[in-house]
Input
Amino acid sequence: MSTPAPHRPSDDGREGPLPEARAWNIVSTLLAGLITFGGIGLLCDHFLGTSWLVLVGLLAGTALAFYLIWFRYGTR
Amino acid sequence: MSPLVLAAGEGFTPPGPEDFWWPIVGSDASNWTLTRPAVVALFSVALIAWFFLAATKRRSIIPGKLQFVGEGAYGFIREGVGRDLIGSKDFRRFMPLLFTQFTFILVNNVFGIIPLIQFPTMSRIAFPIGLTVLTYVVYHTVGFRKKGFVGYLKDLVPPGLPTWIVPFIFLLEFVDKFITRPLTLSLRLFANMFAGHLLLLVFILGAEHMILDLGPALKVAGILSGVLAVVMTFFELLVEVLQAYIFTLLTALYIGGALAEEH
Output
């Protein structure tokens, strides 16, 4: 294509991605928190014979995901 | 008992996953059976190739119709997805991947509601998985190349976190980037296309059955179902375009994330 890129005022000096674009990652971070620590809880339940660690894992995973989201997108 | 099962008792076969199995050459479930989605996918490739060859054949400053549409689509992905999500420094070398993915998914999705073709290729999960594998390999390769093996893994965790929490965040981020992302990327596309096609089948087959086989009161319901099928078809068009866009957007986002320094 020989068409030049249209002038975009928002480009001023920015070489990396739009900072707001990172917000798309939030859902998958939350999901990863649930899956990872819920899964660890489930495994522990399976091997220890308990039944409440999966709940602890799910809650801890969600809390950790929220913390990471706040730290990464909220503080900077 | 669900209403669908009850209806099945009256001579109506509700649509199900078996409606997505369309062998053309060979009918057993062997690996070499030529199926309808495979033919549709091949046709889409030929169609896209023809379109862009035709659109770029006679280029001029004042674009013709084909050139206008082709350049419009390319510009949309280039500016709105590539540049915004990867950044103006690196996005150019990923444009072939992004634009191919977008056009391939878009055409195959929209085929779901084109008369006679009427099959969304992406409702067979192998297609989304194949596309996702490509995205997955590309963004991890790009990340490992740019930051080195240790550097890429180190970069999963944002600096400045309290030390005790770092291992947990690392685990979380590792699972996110290596497991959740490909899983959600392929399942989102597959599930949207699968569910959308099934929904249309329910409305259309339901309308046909009620109008042709049942009493006057249900004939009215059947007509209503038919009207809703048309409405849902337009809704499907929206979903199909949106899913093609989202898949491309997320590919660009993952590549951009793998290239960007965490700071």
